[in-house]
Amino acid sequence: MRSPPVPLAEVTRGPLVESVHYGHVAAVTGDGHLAFALGDPEEAVYLRSSAKPFQVLPVLLEGAADRYGFTDPEIALACGSHEGEPVHQDTARQMLEKAGLTGEALRCGITPPLDEKEKKKLEQKGEEPSTLHNECSGKHAAMVALARHLGAPLDTYLEADHPVQQRMREVVARFADVNGEAMPTGIDGCRLPTFAVPLRAAALMFARLVAPPADWEEPTKAACGRVVRAMTTHPEMVDGTNAEELLDSAVMRAGRGLVVSKMGAEGLYAAGVPPCERWPTGLGLAVKVADGDNEERARSPIAVALLHHLGALADGDLDVLSSHRTKPVTSNEDEVVGEVRPAPTLTSQA
Questions:
Q1: Burial class of residue 243 (count of CB atoms within 10 Å of its CB; 0-12, 13-18, 19+)
Q2: What is the pLDDT of residues 209-250, one digit of tens each?
């Protein structure tokens, strides 16, 4: 029987719990063992931006990254959902220039930067945003570079039957250990195909990213190692420079390179823990907040509590992550009137 979602975070106001975020959790070891679960680990979820570390793997495996000399910060940007800060724009532009392309090649759409300072700067100058400001421009830059490397059409790299997207599907299916032809597919916010897998399979993907199976070929293992190194060494490229507000970079900094963290839209969160004494074959974690958590107020407390419970974050790391352990609920005058915190479902475990 399928299990219903369980409370993962609660929102307080004064002495009362005013709202509750429900969801599902799965933690899977590198050998496929379900180590921890809440709710339904078989819940089908779209990977959304949590797929980005896997979507960049074909760029490495097919030789495009080496051909165009992509650096680790550029690989990290391709894995990221960035804030559109100048460093992100410049890095995406450099990736395109290396492949002989410009921002006009990107089909991700034009969106304002997520970074408020950069957004205000554009407004004050009376300038319009570009495709480089889009949070997915790094991923799209990597994809058009791969298309050019393969000699495939550039204008249609978004389409599901394009060689670039076919390679993305193959990688996701392999890491998730699912039938690629049967994976449900939707269209992401940046217009690319996004794949759905069971939550347990999403966790397995991240376990295999940080600890590929021993019998996998060496180029794949090396590509995984480079993605993990790029993300953990340059977490500011994965989301932004303000770790006080941004979960992925904060977790990877606090974890000192021992945690890979990547959020996805509509309440998805995923992380990988490389092999260690507690998890000798590595560990993958996947969380789905059922209501979508579009304000991203619940995932930080949930993620930090779970990563601590699973041993990926030490007690001392929690001090560094104080702004993510709970989130303030404020009045219109910024007076703190409550908090968003892990639900007892989690704290009794953690």
A1: buried
A2: 999 999 999 999 999 999 999 999 999 999 999 988 899 999
